[in-house]
Amino acid sequence: MRFVSQDGRQVVGEVRTDETFMTVLSEAVAAVEGAGVPCLLMGGVASAAIGRLRWTHDIDLLVRPDDARPALSALAAAGFDVEETDAHWLYKGFKHDVLVDVIFRSAGDIFLDDEMLARSSLVDHGGQSVRIIAPEDLVVIKAVVSAEHVPQHWYDALGVLASCEMDWEYLAARARRFGLRRVLSLLLFAQSNDLPVPDKPIRMLCETLHVD
Fold it and tell me: Rounded mean pLDDT of 195-205?
C-alpha cells in the first residue's frame, strides 16, 4: 500500500471540487447551520479533506436525531428536493444533481454527540472552509461501516491514519464504545503496511479484550 502524494496522502482519483458540487456543499451547510442545527461533514468529503484524495458523488452531513427533520426542512427552504428516506438513520436532499445525505445514526449506532462537536475542526476543502468530523471519529466510523460492497471505507480510514496526527487515547476510547475489534483490526492492518501507527493504542485495545 502506498501513500505517495506530496502531502503524504494517496491520490485515488480527482477530488470533487467542481463549481456545482462546491456550491451545493456551501448552500447545504449554510442552510442547516443557519437553522441552528449543529452538523459535521463526514464521508467522502471528510476523507478527501483530511485523508486520501478521492472522488465522492455525495455530501454527508451528520446531525443529531432530534435535528434531522429541522435539517431537512432547512434544505427544503433553500431549494433542495428532499425526502425522508429511512426513519432509522437517513434523509436526503438533492440539488443540481448533487446528493446530500442527512445522517442521524451512523453504522454501529454512532450518534453525533457533544464530544464529537468539540473535537471537530474547520478544514480547507477546494478553497472552502468546512467543518469536518475529527479524524479519530472518522476512522472509527469508517472501520465500523466497512463491508465487502463498500471497501473504500476501510481504505479511507487507512488514509486518515497515514495523514493525520491522531489522539490515540481518544481513538481507543471511541473504539471501545463503538467498534473495538474493527478498529483493532484496522490498526494491525495499518501497521502491517508500515503506516505510522504506534503500539500503544493496539495494546490499549488488546488489554480491553484481555488478550495478548
Answer: 96
CA dist 60 and 39 (Å) reads: 10
Q: Could you give the CA distance from residue 74 to residue 209 in angstroms, rounded to a whole number? A: 44
Grid cell in block for residue 183: 478498529
Residue 161 gets the label, from left (phi > 0), alpha (psi -120 to 50) or beta, of: alpha
For residues 133 and 157, give the distance between their C-alpha atoms in angstroms, rounded to a whole number: 13
The per-residue DSSP string of 166-197 comes to: --HHHHHHHHHHH-HHHHHHHHHHHHHTT-S-
Give the number of other CB atoms < 10 A from CB of residue 197.
22
pTM recorded for the entire structure? 0.90
Q: Which residue has the cell 479519530?
A: 136
For 134: left if phi > 0, alpha if psi spans -120 to 50, otherwise beta; the answer is: beta
